[in-house]
UniProtKB/TrEMBL annotation:
Signal peptide: 1-24
CDD domains: ISOPREN_C2_like (cd00688)
Domain Prenyltransferase alpha-alpha toroid stretches: 55-166
Protein name, entry field: Terpene cyclase/mutase family protein
Length: 403
């Protein structure tokens, strides 16, 4: 799942066999929004990715133990429709959602993962999970929009949401089919160069085409993991018949390893950009490989990201920084020293100051007051003199002794 599947993604859900497209909405080419809502991360038009980038930003901050600003969390919870679903963005949340509001599974599932991690939002996440269950397809999976054909990416991000919310994805079924049944049906057999990969969706004839982005998502989904996950401990394995989700995950990881072996990065699937590195999908692949086989399994693409991804993230904003933080977290890498970049500080700077930063600012001001010759202890001394009649003021007070 790249920075965001935007309007192009919606079209792709009805074009069977298309790769999960991605559009960097936080890029220089994107049109800036003239009036961004309070609490929103990023500086560009949120129409197609507002909830997604906000969810990733909040989840990434929680992963590195940063408390997001209350306004940022409130913005996200305020985007929910009464039925529990989230759309990519609602400009007017005072107006009830109607048929014109295009809710989607990806925004909803990402919001669930973020808000569950933050805690204290059980009502919001509970309604969202109920809605996700209500739009599950008969094959056990999910499409981007309700009723759309199941795809690997959407099914996997919903699996992550279910797991985060304490559900057992294997027990969430429709007509006897679970999400894992849908993912297994989208896994390629162990034949040829694409052995073990996942497809995004079957084409019109039911054929499966390997898709690296879908494979990274599919590995996490088959493992029952979410967007932010730590390193796994399963050894690599040769491709074998995917008779279980675990084997499908191992097969997918083996495919990603082969694809990444040459250059250490994935390439873009967008028309006209086939020779360009795909930074976001490479970050997703790092998370998938680490979740399957540990940090060592992702060493080569992780090293490539450290050397090359800083400029891309700066151009693409909060979701990009979040993806790199997820890659760092999955491999046990310090996100505050990622190839010379402090990803956490960069992410924090794209939105309202986190609560911790605000508290530090207040503490710094208090320290400044304490150090002043006319600070708080000077006034305490004066009151003591007046109150008990002492004719002199102590010449020195320990600066560390706050009440």
């Amino acid at each position: 799942m790249n920075v965001r599947r935007s309007a192009a993604a919606l079209a792709a859900t009805v074009v069977l066999g298309a790769a999960a497209p991605a559009m960097a909405t936080d890029s220089p080419s994107a049109s800036p929004s003239p009036a961004l809502p309070k609490g929103l991360y990023g500086t560009t038009d949120p129409t197609y990715d507002g909830v997604w980038r906000q969810s990733l930003a909040l989840l990434a901050q929680d992963t590195v133990k940063v408390r997001p600003a209350a306004s940022a969390v409130d913005w996200l919870t305020g985007q929910q429709c009464a039925n529990g679903a989230f759309a990519a963005y609602r400009a007017d949340t005072a107006k009830a959602c109607d048929a014109k509001v295009m809710v989607d599974t990806n925004s909803t599932a990402a919001a669930v993962q973020a808000l569950t991690a933050l805690g204290g939002h059980d009502s919001v996440t509970g309604k969202a999970v109920t809605w996700l269950k209500s739009v599950q397809n008969k094959d056990g999976g999910w499409g981007y929009t309700p009723g759309g054909a199941s795809d690997t990416n959407s099914t996997s991000v919903v699996v992550g949401a279910l797991a985060a919310a304490g559900e057992k994805p294997a027990d969430v079924t429709k007509d006897g089919k679970s999400p894992y049944d849908a993912l297994l049906a989208l896994a390629l057999p162990c034949e040829g160069d694409d052995a073990g990969a996942f497809a995004y969706q079957p084409d019109k004839k039911g054929r499966l085409a390997a898709n690296a982005d879908a494979t990274a998502a599919g590995v996490l989904g088959a493992l029952g993991k979410g967007l932010a996950t730590g390193p796994g401990e399963k050894a690599g394995a040769d491709c074998a018949k995917a008779a279980s989700p675990e084997q499908a995950a191992a097969n997918g990881a083996a495919y990603l390893t082969r694809v990444l072996d040459k250059d250490g990065h994935l390439v873009s699937a967008l028309p006209g950009a086939e020779d360009q590195p795909d930074y976001g999908n490479t970050a997703d692949a790092v998370v998938a490989l680490a979740a399957q086989g540990g940090a060592g399994a992702a060493a080569k693409p992780l090293g490539w990201l450290k050397d090359n991804a800083a400029k891309w993230a700066a151009q693409n904003g909060p979701a990009a920084y979040a993806q790199l933080i997820f890659a760092a977290h999955a491999t046990g890498t310090d996100p505050r020293a990622f190839g010379g970049t402090d990803l956490v500080a960069k992410l924090d700077a794209t939105g309202p100051a986190p609560q911790k930063a605000a508290e530090q600012t207040a503490d710094a001001q208090e320290e400044k007051d304490d150090d002043s010759p006319f600070g708080v202890w000077w006034y305490v001394g004066v009151f003591l003199v007046v109150g008990i009649g002492i004719g002199f003021l102590l010449s020195h007070r320990g600066k560390g002794g706050r009440a």
